[in-house]
Amino acid sequence: MALLYRILTAASVLILAPYYAWRGWRRREPRQTLRDRFGFLSPQILERANAASRENRPVWIHAVSVGEVLAAQPLLEGLRARFPARPLYVSTTTETGQRLARERFSAAADLFYFPLDWTTSVRRALRSLRPALIIIMETEIWPNFLRVAHEAGVAVIFANARISERSMARFERWKFLVGDFFERILQWPALFLAQTSEDAARLASMGAPEERVEVTGNLKYDSEPPPATPFLEWLAGQIKNQERWPVLVAGSVVAEEESHVLAAWDLVQRQWRHSLLILAPRKPDRFDAAAALCHEGGWNVVRRSQINLSLPLDDQADILLLDSIGELAGLYSIAEAVFVGGSLVRSGGHNILEPAWYSKPPVFGPSMENFQEMAGRFLSARAGIQVDSGPMLGRVWIQLIEDAATRQRAGEAAKKIYLQNRGAALRSLDRIAALLASGDEGECR
Description:
Shape: globular
Number of strands: 14
């Protein structure tokens, strides 16, 4: 199976090379993006990596996309404080993750795109960076990458590791075919820092050595609210001056979910004509489609990308479409009611802690497989509300708008959960520091 995988990934390069070249041209990506994916890191990274001393070789952190980038932030800042002499490099897989990391990760020496899981690309990136340690956020299991890192003597840690119920069910279904393959792969990482005891048990059942699996908690609880941006301050001022009320925020909305949110919004706007919906699609490729759906519904839409902060907000705007990256979290602070997307359709859910930072009770749908434990905490404490349709979302929004006491109580409970479950970053940092101090740093042969 391992040999077959290596053959297939090598063969796939013939397809992926022209695909990524075409996509980069279409999106006007820098040429370095494609080079990163094939392991050719930028001259600046090579120069800094070569200048690092043997005792302070780099730490490489990989965060796939936006959610992993946000989870990695407290870890990155903690590593910078503990190991100021070690360069910290961050890779992402997605463009949105890369853009957010460039905005948030001032502590990183540099950023690049994760190499394709092709032996040659991986080996080239490792030899260029010469890392002492690699930290993979959550559970991105790339067999060739793990094998080459192991052969090079570089320790790999999975931080904030999780295995969703859906992923586990898929593994069980195909265990007869891939079980031995995964068991072999999971022998290579040095440590698995799991979010929950259930995640730890699932990792062990897939083949991870039990003595290398530890429960350190969910790093997302250690994330901090972002500082206020000029856009947030401008928008809060416009809402106050125009006496817009209520304000609703639907964040991280995914494809096929926009129609449900707009159905809910229609119910709200029938009662409050001067209300405002802030609609934030999860991915940039949905910006135009979401705007089109809003226009088809007859609403006046203002796009964030077309706003001039020196001019007032259109007072006839019904919907503000947030077609930007990295500005969503702070906007929850100005909302009367919120919705966290990726949950009304089968997508696995998104982070419900961001509204909790501002004492806003998150409303979300039934598909929360990626945040199952967290969603359970919120529902048990009546700190969040689960809905199963657009009309139900609308009714819940109306209830929260009309009942300030319920809104406040649930919001306070949500923030309490956020504050009480912090500490995963410190526990994870202790284990990472111990591994670095133990002298088990690879030579990256």
